[in-house]
Design a protein that fits this description.
155 residues, 5-stranded antiparallel β-sheet, 5 strands, 21% helix, globular
Length: 155
């Protein structure tokens, strides 16, 4: 569940920032009773209104594996320099496919395991030195990753 950090030191939930902890605990709370993973229908944005400006969602497309922005939180738009909702990730940010961020998307989409990362941003956002990011899968009725639910905090 823990992605690489700049020091390669795994961080435990107690080390995470409060916004990411809150998002992770919310994601855990919407798991169905049968022990499966949550779906988009389980996720209600109104349950986390204070986090929404930092939340983003990617639709997972297969054959080939590719991602499209379903949502990009309003606090992230000025950081990333554009509103990318509705755009393919690799078209909105062409350099991302050569970054660790893209590898992380692929990891979560294929393993269906959440992934935490704290470290230097994996693609250029010059005004920010650190990103703390959490990626979590939302699945479809066949238990395939359908959406990557993310939250990012830049400092």
């Amino acid at each position: 569940m823990v992605g690489p950090t700049d020091t390669n030191t795994p961080l435990t939930l107690s080390d995470w920032g409060p916004k990411l902890r809150k998002m992770y605990n919310y994601w855990l709370s919407i798991h169905p009773d049968d022990g499966g993973l949550p779906t988009r229908q389980d996720f209600d944005p109104m349950d986390i209104p204070d986090l929404l400006p930092l939340v983003w969602m990617l639709d997972v497309h297969r054959n080939p594996l590719r991602y499209k922005f379903r949502l990009l939180g309003t606090a992230l738009i000025p950081i990333l320099g554009k509103e990318a909702t509705g755009q393919w990730v690799d078209e909105a940010f062409p350099d991302i496919t050569n970054s660790g961020a893209f590898d992380d998307y692929n990891h979560v989409a294929t393993t269906k395991e959440p992934l935490y990362r704290k470290g230097t941003p994996q693609y250029i956002v010059p005004e920010y030195k650190t990103i703390e990011r959490l990626l979590m899968p939302l699945v479809d009725k066949n238990n395939d990753s359908k959406i990557l639910l993310g939250i990012s905090v830049y400092t």
